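During the practical work, I worked with a single protein chain and the tokens that describe its fold, as given directly below.
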Amino acid sequence: MTSSRTITTPVNRKTADVFDAILDWPKKMMPDATKDDDGWWSFTTPSGHVKLKLNPNRQLGILDHQFVEESIKWDVIMRVVRSGDYAEIIITLFKPKQSSDQLFNQHMKEIEKLMENMKLIIEQT
């Protein structure tokens, strides 16, 4: 059975602003972030060197992406949806086969912190 987790973060900004901010979040949150010609971001996290590629669809609020660490590849489902005058960021992650439950839970805690930091940065812009 596949384990998954969904994290929802309300953001006190309009949906379009949140969508645009997420497209640029690597350079705002990771000082060493660079983007290559194929659209892959590269940067360093506490876990090591990682790569990220967003596959956006603005009209549908889709920001699905691939997140590649040294030994694990994550296919992340991400949406930005309207919630009244504001937006919700919703991400769903499935536990990779090569990840233990303990490692998956640790990653979820890190992602929750990342989402909170992302929210603060977006709301301050």
Observations:
- Residues 4-124 form a domain with the Alpha-D-Glucose-1,6-Bisphosphate; Chain A, domain 4 fold (CATH 3.30.530.20).
- The chain has one domain: 4-124.
- Strands lie at 4-11, 34-35, 40-45, 48-57, 62-68, 73-83, 86-94.
